[in-house]
Amino acid sequence: MSETIKKPVLFSGIQPTGNITIGNYIGAMSNFVKLENDYDCLFSIVDLHALTVRQDPASLRRKSLELAALYIAAGLNPEESIIYCQSHVPQHAELAWILNCFTYMGELSRMTQFKDKSQKHADNINAGLFTYPVLMAADILLYQTDLVPVGADQKQHLEITRDIAERMNGIHPGLFKVPKPHIPKETAKIMSLTEPEKKMSKSDPDDSIITLVDKPDAILRKFKRAVTDSETEIRFDPENKPGVSNLLSIMSNMSGESIESIVSRLNGQGYGALKQQTAEATIERLKPIQLKQEELLKDKEYMAKVLKTNAERAQTLALRTLRKVYKKLGLYQP
Asked: Which residue among 86, 222, 252, 320 is least packed, with the fewest CB closer than 10 Å?
């Protein structure tokens, strides 16, 4: 990223918890590579957000490094985009405190994700869980972000980010860019293998998802167990045949072959052939990503350098915004 940002800024953050699924890859990560030419991209491993739920320290460290390597293995260029750990850029937490002072309790109490997570983690309803959207707003506003790729579950967080930015701009004009959602070109929604009416999520049970690090035998086993229906006809009909349609979507995205072509080619062969070939296409697509990630993780010196350099690049940009905020708010700067 150049020192003077000329292209629109795009920010995305992913928690280093769970494993990235093929749904995440098809819906987001594979598209990130295409965005590098048109946007100045920041891809943050939001490890501070992960702390709202109790984490095993060794696992969190390992998964943060694995996610950074996965970004690069999937095709992102760490010299073009900024790939970094959120905790390596302290300005995220600094700006979050400022934004906390301009965010209302009522706004935060209405956040659906807080309600959902409070039910799932009733023994650990902490303040960080409540103010999570403010840190997310800081992540975005810190870089004067133009666009944020959002899924349906994150729209509410982007809305509160926009509300905070507009509120502060009303008091101090021109403080923040008000970010807009980046709606990617229509991609298939990848559903759970065991509950094909429900979107695949990295927090789902292991047999319901295919992750980017699953070994070939695990991929084959999961697809063979995938829920279909009591019929035998292979056709794309998400409403009446969600399981079969999901497998067709996955195979099409992984192989590049159109759904129409797959349906025609597999006519009369049954669900066994559909599952087998979907598994084979997925294994083939993921193989180079997995090999590259393994290679990167072995080169600890390279990964440490990438994350350190990228964090420094992010800090350069973050400090510009933070100094501007401090000055506007009257915080003395020598």
From this structure: 320
